[in-house]
Structure formats: structure tokens, C-alpha cells
């Protein structure tokens, strides 16, 4: 029986028009590069954001300069705070309806993200979501030692609710690394969704159990798991 669904935030349950990755692209290109948004999404989606910068620089520029990455990350955080001041943040279509349906089934809703806690909480506050109402727990990149694709965030969430078996947990996300994270945590279902960073074809390359186009498509998968 499924006891918990772990959802990624941006692109999965939160619609913020890719502002994080557009801001990441801006901060990197201000350091003298000319990467496209598609490149940033391909290598950065779902990762803790400093690690995303390092991955992008390594893959596309052959650079492993930690000092440069740290400087870009510092600019990124400032730019992102500015963007979130004015940006309209919306729930992904049917997110709240799905959360309600899962609660009616006594299934826990956990949000997890490659953001730091401050950024994640800013998003949640703008949405008006409350812990214990829309969701049961939030786990961020700064809550654990190792980030995606390592399973630490999911395992941390499982520990909070005394869940010991990955066969009772589902992971849903919009990027390849979400699917890898869920598989590494032993989740019974790892579900890609096409509303965010990666395309159907990109998600398919990670061999998820399912790929969906709308959050409500998750319900029959959970019911039949």
C-alpha cells in the first residue's frame, strides 16, 4: 500500500515559468558564457543549484572552477530573490486537487526540491500553502548531506514518518534526476511529468515506470500500485 508521494516543486507541483533556470542562465552568462536555456535545463534541472552550475560549466565549457561556480551562485541567489519579488507563482494545474485526493486516501504528500530552504519556503508562502493542510512535509537541498540523484531527501522524508520500505513510496518529478533519485531511494513507482524542465523523450531516457502529462493522472497509478 502506498503511504507517501514525494513531489518535486518547480515544474511539477509549482508553475513558475522556469524562472529559476532562466535566472540560472542569466547568472552564468553574466560570467562570460553564452549558454541557451535548453542547455541549462538539460544539465541543471532538478539539481541543487550550486551543483547545477558546476555541471553546466563542466559539460559545456570544460571548467571545474569551484571559485567561479561559487561566484555565479551568489549572483544567482540575488537575482532569484529579485525575480520572486514580482513574479506570479501559481500551483501546477490540479496540484491542490491531487493533494486533497491523496489526503482522502491517507497518503502523505511530501515536497522535495533542489532549492535551499529559504527559496523553497518563499515559493510556498507565495502559493499560500500550509504544512498540515496542502502538504505534510518539505525537504530541501539544504536539509541533507547529499543531493539528487542521491536518495537522501526521500530517505529523510521517510524517516520523519517511520516509513522503512520504498515499496510504500512514489516519486514524481519533471526531470531525469528526479527519476534517478526515486529509483535510488527504492521507490515502487518513479513517475515523470511533462509539465516542467524535461521533454517526454528526455524523461523516457531515465526509464520511469510511467510518464504523465497532468498531475491527476497519478491517482489511478497510486490506486493500482
UniProtKB/TrEMBL annotation:
<dbReference type="Pfam" id="PF13419">
    <property type="entry name" value="HAD_2"/>
</dbReference>
<dbReference type="InterPro" id="IPR050155">
    <property type="entry name" value="HAD-like_hydrolase_sf"/>
</dbReference>
<dbReference type="InterPro" id="IPR006439">
    <property type="entry name" value="HAD-SF_hydro_IA"/>
</dbReference>
<dbReference type="InterPro" id="IPR023198">
    <property type="entry name" value="PGP-like_dom2"/>
</dbReference>
<dbReference type="GO" id="GO:0006281">
    <property type="term" value="P:DNA repair"/>
</dbReference>
<dbReference type="GO" id="GO:0005829">
    <property type="term" value="C:cytosol"/>
</dbReference>
<dbReference type="InterPro" id="IPR036412">
    <property type="entry name" value="HAD-like_sf"/>
</dbReference>
<dbReference type="InterPro" id="IPR041492">
    <property type="entry name" value="HAD_2"/>
</dbReference>
<protein>
    <submittedName>
        <fullName>Phosphonatase-like hydrolase</fullName>
    </submittedName>
</protein>
<keyword id="KW-0378">Hydrolase</keyword>
<dbReference type="GO" id="GO:0008967">
    <property type="term" value="F:phosphoglycolate phosphatase activity"/>
</dbReference>
<dbReference type="InterPro" id="IPR023214">
    <property type="entry name" value="HAD_sf"/>
</dbReference>
Amino acid at each position: 500500500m502506498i503511504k507517501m508521494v514525494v513531489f518535486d516543486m518547480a515544474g511539477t507541483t509549482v508553475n513558475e515559468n522556469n524562472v529559476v533556470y532562466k535566472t540560472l542562465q542569466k547568472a552564468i552568462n553574466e560570467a562570460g558564457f553564452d549558454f541557451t536555456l535548453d542547455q541549462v535545463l538539460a544539465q541543471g534541472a532538478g539539481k541543487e543549484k550550486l551543483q547545477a552550475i558546476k555541471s553546466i560549466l563542466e559539460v559545456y565549457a570544460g571548467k571545474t572552477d569551484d571559485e567561479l561556480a561559487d561566484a555565479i551562485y551568489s549572483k544567482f541567489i540575488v537575482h532569484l530573490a529579485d525575480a520572486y519579488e514580482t513574479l506570479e507563482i501559481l500551483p501546477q494545474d490540479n496540484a491542490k486537487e491531487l493533494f486533497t485526493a491523496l489526503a482522502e486516501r491517507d497518503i502523505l504528500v511530501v515536497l522535495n526540491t533542489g532549492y535551499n530552504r529559504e527559496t523553497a519556503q518563499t515559493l510556498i508562502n507565495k502559493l499560500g500553502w500550509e504544512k498540515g493542510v496542502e502538504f505534510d512535509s518539505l525537504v530541501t537541498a539544504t536539509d541533507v548531506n547529499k543531493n539528487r540523484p542521491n536518495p537522501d531527501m526521500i530517505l529523510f522524508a521517510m524517516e520523519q514518518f517511520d516509513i522503512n520500505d520504498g515499496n510504500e513510496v512514489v516519486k514524481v518529478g519533471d526531470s531525469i534526476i528526479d527519476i534517478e533519485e526515486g529509483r535510488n531511494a527504492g521507490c515502487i513507482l518513479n513517475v515523470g511529468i511533462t509539465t516542467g524542465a524535461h521533454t517526454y523523450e528526455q524523461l523516457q531516457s531515465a526509464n520511469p515506470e510511467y510518464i504523465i502529462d497532468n498531475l491527476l493522472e497519478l491517482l489511478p497509478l497510486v490506486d493500482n500500485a
